[in-house]
Amino acid sequence: MADTDTIVVIGGGIAGVSCTETLSTLCKNESITLVTASPLIKAVTNFKQISRRLEEFDVVENPSSELQEAHRNVTVLQAKVVSIDPLKREIVTSNGKTVPYTKLCICTGGSPKLIMKDDPNVIGIRDTESVSQFQTKLGGSRRVIIVGNGGIATELAYEIGDCEVVWAIKDKSISSAFVDAGTAQFFLPHLSGDKNVQEGPMKRVKYTVKPSPASSSESGAKGGALGPDWSLGIPMNGQVQRSRHVRVEYECEIKEIISLAEIRQRNLKVDKIGDIEDENTDWPVYALLTNSKLYGCDFIVSATGVVPNGNELVMQDLDLKLAADGGVIVNDCMKTNIDHIYAAGDVCSASWDWAPHWLQMRLWSQARQMGCYAAQCIKADLNDKAISLDFCFELFAHVTKFFGYKVILLGKFNGQGLDDEYEILLRMTKGVEYIKVILKDGRMQGAILIGETDLEETFENLILNQLDLSRYGEDLLDPGIDIDDYFD
Ligand code: FAD
């Protein structure tokens, strides 16, 4: 049993820091200890609510001293937690320190799923360190192969310049972690030529990377995951001065990574692309795809998603229940199966009955919301009070940027869980905007808004209030009708 009233939070990513800050405000008389393996911690600045559910904010990486100065009841320890003893209610860190806790919140994030570990030719992108490793490698490169079809792969495919890109995806369409095949068509023209010129001011979260101090992450643990806009202001150029071109290889994965020596030894025939190579061109590494194409490249970026770090903790003899995706199971009060232990952010799997228009995606916005809500749950628990699920979990709302366009995803934006029993309304102006609405029984279930549509607030309300829209039919998306006036 703890001998002081210390609430311990593990992890200096956005979930852990949001949890710590909220706890500091809610529990003024208690001390809060944030233990994190990374030397820098995340901070949210310029927070603005741009609609009831969509948030706008910047993210910076700060030294931990700034959090301690701003919150007098917070202490930050830079150390890796190596074990948790739920009976004694204490954690042990890699530098041998034991910290007792009254309540513990695990916010240890996730790790990139690498297609190949310990291969210097394969890199994953997760934190500031991995981005600078990527930039350095790219600077001397003629061709990279990107594997994966989520947000990071999509941003890379768009941002990389002066370097040939082969994008290997296992699906029939690009960016499938976020958008369906129809929506992906809107983006396809932006895979080559100049970048989208209509990048205007964006209402969205923004991420800023500060240079790391000399000290590095504790015991090889990774820093916090990057977040939205991580690629802004980060030059991503190779050494071949030519117009952008991305070759997409659909419905395939990497079957084998082959060295130059093996290519020669096995006398394999390498597929050529464009004019940057001829019969005699050698590459540092080759990738054989499951569609039998064999390409040479300077290196491979593995952007195949994240595995929650739940397993890491379980290996340390903690009997935490994990979901099939490896996340720590939490209930609607962010509690794990172990008394006094909570979890939030990428590391957890939301295992309550979700509201009809919400779903978990391991996103920065959800890490913040979960961190703040976990703090409220801890406070309620300390006061023996019940708490009801925060309203941010009523509707999935996410704003991001793909190919220079603002992209807003609302509710069941891809008809998730609707068993294909829904209608789709579409409006598209090539190169300008794309609007897709999912309707079931005449009621809006979700929407994808690409470009400056200004429809997010109205659509949020229509999804939440489940108004019967049958009588409006396709007028709902008629650009000649001011839809705001309709539903005000
Ligand atoms: P993390 O940020 O991973 O933080 C985990 C923390 O725990 C770290 O500080 C780590 O050092 C610490 N830690 C781990 N183990 C231990 C231990 N044993 N002891 C002590 N400390 C430990 N999301 C979006 O919403 N939009 C985007 O556009 C977007 N783009 C992304 C681009 C990239 C390249 C990446 C990698 C992610 C992106 N994400 C995006 C996802 C988003 O960054 C994550 O969902 C979010 O940051 C998760 O926050 P977290 O606090 O849960 O975990």
Notes on the structure:
The strands form 8 sheets. A 5-stranded parallel beta sheet has the order 5-2-1-9-22. The protein is globular and about 70 Å long. It contains 10 helices and 28 strands. It is α/β, with parallel strands linked by helices and 488 residues long. Helices cover 19% and strands 29% of the residues.
Identify low-pLDDT runs: 198-220
Arrangement of strands in the largest sheet: 5-2-1-9-22
Count all strands and give the number: 28
What structural class is derived from the secondary structure elements?
alpha/beta
Small molecules bound in the structure, each named once: flavin-adenine dinucleotide
Rg (C-alpha, Å)? 24 Å
Number of separate helices: 10
Helix content: 10-25%
Taking the sheet with the most strands, its summary is: 5 strands, parallel
DSSP strand content = 25-35%
Task: Give the end-to-end Cα distance, rounded to a whole number of Å.
Answer: 55 Å
Mean pLDDT: 86
Overall geometric form: globular
Question: Could you give a quick summary of the protein structure above?
Answer:
By secondary structure, this protein is α/β, with parallel strands linked by helices. It contains ten helices and 28 strands. Helix 1 (about 15-25) packs parallel to helix 8 (about 365-380).
